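Hi W.,

Here's what went into the run:
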Amino acid sequence: MGTLGGAGLAAAAGRARTVGMEGDRLASQARSSGLPAGGATGESPGVDAPLLGGSGSSALLQAQVLDLDEDEDDLEVFSKDASLMDMNSFSPMMPTSPLSMINQVKFEDEPDLKDLFITVDEPESHVTTIETFITYRIITKTSRGEFDSSEFEVRRRYQDFLWLKGKLEEAHPTLIIPPLPEKFIVKGMVERFNDDFIETRRKALQKFLNRIADHPTLTFNEDFKVFLTAQAWELSSHKKQGPGLLSRMGQTVRAVALSMRGVKSRPEEFMEMNNFIEIFSQKINLIDKISQRIYKEEREYSDEMREYGPIHLLWSASEEDLADTLKGVASCIDKCCKATEKRMSGLSEALLPVVHEYVLYSEMLMGVMKRRDQIQAELDSKVEALMYKKADADLLTEEIGKLEDKVECANNALKADWERWKHNMQNDIKSAFTETAEENIHYYEQCLATWESFLASQTDLHMEETSEDKPEAH
Amino acid sequence: MEQAPRDPERQLQPAPLEPLGHLDAGLQSAVGEEAEVARDESPGEGTMTENNFWLKKIEISVSEAEKRTGRNAMNMQETYTAYLIETRSVEHTDGQSVLTDSLWRRYSEFELLRNYLLVYYPHIVVPPLPEKRAEFVWHKLSADNMDPDFVERRRIGLENFLLRVASHPILCRDKIFYLFLTQEGNWKETVNETGFQLKADSRLKALNATFRVKNPDKRFTELKHYSDELQSVISHLLRVRARVADRLYGVYKVHGNYGRVFSEWSAIEKEMGDGLQSAGHHMDVYASSIDDILEDEEHYADQLKEYLFYAEALRAVCRKHELMQYDLEMAAQDLASKKQQCEELATGTVRMFSLKGMTTKLFGQETPEQREARVKVLEEQINEGEQQLKSKNLEGREFVKNAWADIERFKEQKNHDLKEALISYAVMQISMCKKGIQVWTNAKECFSKM
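Here's what came out:
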């Protein structure tokens, strides 16, 4: 399923502008990506040794070649004119060599094939007369030939991420673009830039970029590359290209009008998909709320426990015989308190961000459905026009032909990406909850050990006191 | 150690009822089987004499609670709870128990019994009653006295009270206590006839003594401080425990929501569906497990509460000592001043101001006959005073001796009971952890199969 999807996506991503150049680029790409960590430039990416270790790569290449033969059929479907798609994508459309497919067959669960590593860190505050904002440092390490270097370091702010997302959505309206963390969280925000908020956002931004990097199609997007590599001024000038504001606005108005129509003629499988998305969205939102609430309750429990233990210590000060027992209880409670803290941090690292990302994903998905519906609606409106207007029949027929292609492309792209997304979602949810369960098991095991050892020490003492039997070792 | 000295104690006891030795069958009390095994400190089984009440072993239980309506003293309708007290005597030979007495009592009657004991046994740390109103509640528990959970816990507390009295070497022999268990009607009148309310030391008097006493026994002063600390620390502990319980309840119950949502989600999932559904079931199990856990903890809290209230009983004994000591000091002071007066009269020197002296100066001296008469009166008074002082001293020393013996007994009981309670708390935590491991292991399995 995976390979199919990848190939399909890559194919659907649009073709390059000129075949000639494309061919060259393809060749160099094949050389650089398929080979062990050395890349076209001959440098090794240094720190990123894990990818494509020397010996195994040729065997890998072989394997990939074999797998890809069956995808050739899929590729046929997309040999039509893709000019109606406003693609900025850099990816190869009709790959002429199997080797070039290798880059497209990459998933999160195959780390060996990753050749693009991105980290987001070092949030820094910038104050100007107009505003205050935060920039993040983005480090990209890659072995890909199309990148001029193997390591890049840039600074970006949230706005830049928004821009990137917008461009990706424009280029791939029916692909499932990874979600961005929210602009700001209204509830419970005292200060826009408190540390927890920044850290959460930083992690989410890193996830966002890595998800794009792992996506078989999006990873080759030109804007993505620019985002990762361009210096500040370069980025600004690049941003200014592309359709102007007015035309974009026009598109939006048309889109809203059309999206209603698309719903009516939605094919069965997309009705199912939509149904899934609706219910999934409901449920994941609930799970998000529940998980946040659990975190809050655990925090409050931990706060109370912190006060609970020391009282026993205080009491032991006025007792003689009971002092040891009381101190023992106090120490157990303190240890359990620490275990609770650990459990909480596990929750906030393993579960909360994942669930929240899927909340955002579910919103994304609804947007994707809408866009698909719009594209369909465009076709439908032209078809209707043809039925009622006999004039310009030829022109309309031609347009319809193109729109039919567009719809088919969009549907197939979505279908493939949908399968991929679902697969990833299941894995992510499964591992998030499994890890949470493990954290809880570990928490209870720790507490158990603490109390059991306390109990053992007490019964030992008791035996010594009564001095009837020999004290047992515990 | 369990036996208190008998004869000197009898002297201290005002005996309008002659509580000892007037009943036919002497019965020996023992801890009922409802009590914890560890509290099996049967007082002097085998040192029975005709002075003892109890010959056979008895078991006491407060087995039921019932809502009743009746009319109170002002002839208004009221609702109250009555408790059934059953007394069984255990045959030595075959251990079978036979129901000998059974009657209903309400909380106010327990209070009456305790107040009586407080007055007649001031040197004893009298066991406390369970709380009148629910305190240290956390959100689930109702503060309503009619709430069944509260009533149940109070029933247990009252039984505990009776068992404590019955297992106390001295208190168990009290006739009023015996009648409380055996004579349903008229008991209240019988108690009131003892006139114990009149014998009670006034609060004001006690307060006064506390402030003014000069030389109380150091041990009692220390004990007073200890009881203050004990009370303060236990109430703090109970307050925080209630809050912890509240939070813990929250954590567990919120997880229950997962169950419902997972189940609904599983409907749209093909591969994940089963895993989600069964994981959800385990979340429900987890959420509902907290109810039993916290109910057990309430019993632990009750054990601590008993000692919270015991602190007040300790203070009562200290107050009595202070009162007696103050009394003694006042008597001694009075005696000293009378002696001085006498001396002055005899020698004619006036060292202290006295009204007589002033009037004498102002209105002329008294005759030698008058003076001699006065001296004689004073000498009589001094004699009396000296006798009184002697007996007060003796009383005071006896009190201290007996009280301290009971306090030592109490200390041992307290250390034993509280240690057990703390250990039982650990056992509860262990059980809770084991349940948690079980549930989450099951859940993890479900998740990993998704």
